[in-house]
Amino acid sequence: MKTPNISVCIETLLSTLDGFKISEVDLELRGPGDPEGTQQSGQLPFKLLNLAMDARVISFSGGLVKKILEDDPQLERDNNKILKTTLNNIKHEQTFWVKVG
């Protein structure tokens, strides 16, 4: 985990009351932690994604997913079959959703 820059923290807290802005700065400084567990800071082991830096990509991708599922909820069209296969493969992998001590 990288150590937060205290001057950036104080500057942000003094310059805004916007909780979303404070949260964004906190995310950039400390990382997202583990949303499935108890670790409140640090980086997740994503290979191609950084939650703090890629928010626009994540939002755009979410919109695409929503549109695809609105148009083809069962992913039965030819161009969506690879998505369905990939999702089914992921479902069968062992996943631990909660790690509370």
Rounded to the nearest angstrom, the radius of gyration is 18 Å
Distance between the termini: 20 Å
Largest sheet: none
Number of strands: 0
Output the helix-strand order: HHHH
Number of helices: 4
Alpha-beta classification:
mainly alpha
Low-confidence stretches: none
How many domains make up the coordinates?
Answer: 1
Helix content: 40-55%
Q: What gross morphology would you assign?
A: elongated
How would you describe this protein?
- The radius of gyration is 18 Å and the shape is elongated.
- The chain has 101 residues and is mostly helical.
- Helix 1 (6-15) runs antiparallel to helix 2 (19-30).
- It has helices at residues 6-15, 19-30, 55-71, 81-92.
- It has one domain (6-92).
- It starts with 5 loop residues before the first helix and ends in a 9-residue tail after the last helix.
- It has 4 helices and no strands.
List strands and helices in order, with pairings:
Elements: H1 6-15, H2 19-30, H3 55-71, H4 81-92
Helix pairs in contact: 1-2
Features:
single chain, 0% strand, 4 helices, 101 residues, mainly alpha
Task: Provide a quick synopsis of the model.
With 101 residues, this protein is an all-alpha fold. It is built from four helices and no strands.
